[in-house]
Amino acid sequence: MYIEPLKLVVLASLVSPSFELFVPTDHWQLVPEGEALPRGLDIRMDLQTGDKWAKLSDDTSAQNQDIVAVPINEKRPLAKVTIGKDTAEEGEAAENEAVENEADDEDQGHIDKMKRALEVSTGHLELDETLQYVLSGKRAELVQHLETLVDQSHGLKEGISIVERAFDELLKLTRDENVTVRDLSLRVIAQCLRHNKEAVEKVNVVEVLPVLFEDLENSNNFIQKRILGVISALVVEDEANAKIFDNAGYFTKLLAQLPHLQEDAQLRVLNIFEDVTDHRYDEALFKTLEDMLITKSFNQYALESLFDAACSLKRGNNALKASSEFINWILEQVDKRQKSDPFRTKLLEARHEVFGNRLALRKAFDEL
Questions:
Q1: Mean pLDDT lowest for which of 125-129, 162-166, 238-242?
Q2: Where is this region: Disordered (predicted)?
Q3: Residue range 192-204: average pLDDT?
């Protein structure tokens, strides 16, 4: 018995919940797009078109829950290979022996191609099932399904599909009272959009940005980070969105919120300014950083990161002038730190090389 080239038969337990269920018969039928498949059917897929046919399994076949691919070579007997096992299942002894003796790279290529097609098809069914649950409004297993979406949202095609089908629902879940649901929803959105221009273009930033900014200031540290991750994905690699962001005054809003955000979120904001803006905001950002460093307390990592950002702005724009209050803050930080502290050395070097007279640096070290 032979099957047309580039066709495969699947004996599987694939279920995709849907409002429309495919009704099988004893004969092969084309499966309409969007209809879900019951368990235990024989499924045939055309690898060139992606079309699927299905029918009721024979009594013996229905008991087999393995996924089986049948490689096609019209000049050779058929071999049946079970996906996920290392060796081919034995059929008729003569046929298997012939395949084993005469197998070549072409046969293996057919097998590998069909394995990949099955993996892709199964992945699409899993994504479809997950999205349908999220869209259903059910709560019992929402966290588990969102965790699945986190894993699935890295792929470009998957990211586009998730944004097309579930973006509005995911955005709504970013305001859920369950913090875990909020966190996972924001992670899914950010991963769908990151480095995925087609997915980004499907989002109406004019409507989405106000929602994100409304939630930004009053959220906890890691939710703030997630929100800024979504904002970054929307504007960093899309010039049109960055222009909308700028014209709507969101860079100014970020500057205003920067001192009030949690430390990790503050560093995310600095990354957005570094990646998107030109020098128009250098002075405002530099003055904001000066004021933050002088008046607020930070953990050591955040302190050094904010100071490094101020130094980087000054190095890139000589027109920026450090205030006398900021210079005094640097000197106070130098005085209260141990000589062995590497950050003390960085402060002293910056005082003279970045914010003062470079020639005075050697004298400063001589006086230590």
A1: 125-129
A2: 86-110
A3: 96
Identify the bridge partners of residue 7 per DSSP, sorted by sequence position: 46
Q: Which of the residue ranges 15-19, 23-27, 44-48, 202-206 would you say has the lowest mean pLDDT?
A: 15-19
- C-alpha 303/C-alpha 306 separation (Å) is 5
What pLDDT, on the 0 to 100 scale, is given for residue 126? Answer: 77
Helix (H) or strand (E) holding 29: strand 29-30
DSSP 8: E
CA–CA separation, 253 vs 209, rounded Å? Answer: 12
d(CA 292, CA 268): 16
Q: How far apart are CA 334 and CA 339, in angstroms?
A: 9
Which H or E element spans position 42?
A: strand 41-46
What is the residue type of 277?
T
Tell whether pTM > 0.90: no
- Helix spans in the chain (H): 59-62, 93-102, 105-136, 142-152, 156-173, 179-193, 197-201, 205-216, 221-235, 239-247, 250-257, 263-276, 282-295, 300-316, 324-335, 342-353, 360-366
pLDDT of residue 65: 43
Indicate whether 180 pLDDT > 80: yes
Q: What is the pLDDT of residues 304-329, one digit of tens each?
A: 999 999 999 999 999 999 999 999 99
Domains with residue ranges and CATH for the chain: 7-110 (no CATH), 137-277 (1.25.10.10), 281-368 (no CATH)
C-alpha to C-alpha distance for 33 and 48, rounded to whole angstroms: 16
Burial 143-163 (b: 16+ CB within 10 A, else e): eebbbbbbebbebeebbbbbb
Q: How far apart are alpha carbons 331 and 286 in whole angstroms?
A: 18
CA atoms within 13 A on the CB side of 146: 26
Residue 252, token pair as written in the block? 């100014």
The two structure tokens encoding residue 43: 């499924």
Residue percentage of the chain with pLDDT more than 90: 54
Give the distance from CA 199 to its chain's centroid: 11
